[in-house]
Amino acid sequence: MKDKVFVVILFTLSIVITICILKRSFIEPLMDTVDILLLGDYVLGRPSNLGEISIEEEIKNDKKIKGCANVIFHNIKNYTNKCDTISDFETQIINIGKRKNLDKKTTYIFVSIGMNDIVNNYSVCEQQTDNKTDCLGIDEIYPKWEKEIKTLVDTYKKANIVIISGHYFEKGHNVNHCGTKLNPTFRLNNKIDEFNKKLIYYTKNNTNLKFILLNKTLTLEDSIIDEISMNNTSKTKLINYMIKKITCF
Q1: Superfamily (CATH H level) for 32-244
Q2: Whole-number Å distance between alpha carbons of 85 and 81
Q3: Coil, helix or strand for 157?
Q4: Neighbour tally for 58: CB within 10 Å
Q5: Neighbouring residues of 247: CB distance < 8 A, sequence distance ≥ 6
Q6: Model confidence over 170-196: pLDDT tens digits?
Q7: Residue 27 has what pLDDT?
Q8: Model pLDDT for residues 71-96, shown as the tens digit of each residue
Q9: b/e string for 27-46 if b means 16 or more Cβ within 10 A?
Q10: What separation in angstroms does the CA of 232 have from each of 31, 94, 97, 151, 247?
């Protein structure tokens, strides 16, 4: 009797192992493997506090994406740094350049960069009385952004690159931005509008670029918390918009 039970168990295990081998060898290669990369600044940043939503985990566990029968996730990688500016973005591109097989239609690269440049410049130009020679207009900030995005587009011609715009700040709501105290005014939001218009124009003229307009996604009340990291309400809204950009193939 024991021998029969052992034989049944052995037979069952062999079937399970065979199915796993067949799945890995024949089924999974026929499925589209999705790679997701997050690049840029605090907007796509990793959780910094207990209880804060992780964008990576929320995307992995989303039921809509799990419902894509022919899509499996290979990896979601976050290269963001909270206080990174456009000049730091080149390093992020170099880092992802070390990964192979990313130039494909099932790679999604989400990018949020430029807001730190605008806010840093606003702090110098609007709130300080000296060092005015360091002020930069949007016409000077934007070409730097375009240069780095073009490098990304040229490197990953087949990938889906999703540009995330700047977002508004609630006027009069003081925040601490990477060690700099910030008191936003309408002038800061005007600069963000000017920057976003250039981003919209650029993405419309590049076929493999998609766009998420943050200042239409987030309300002023829920858009930021101190240190201008995004709160959970904001992240949930952003994640929903990001998921809509990921399609079943």
Answers
A1: SGNH hydrolase (3.40.50.1110)
A2: 9
A3: coil
A4: 17
A5: none
A6: 777 777 777 777 777 788 888 989 999
A7: 37
A8: 666 688 899 988 899 999 988 988 88
A9: eeeeeeebbbbbbbbbbbbe
A10: 32, 30, 31, 32, 24
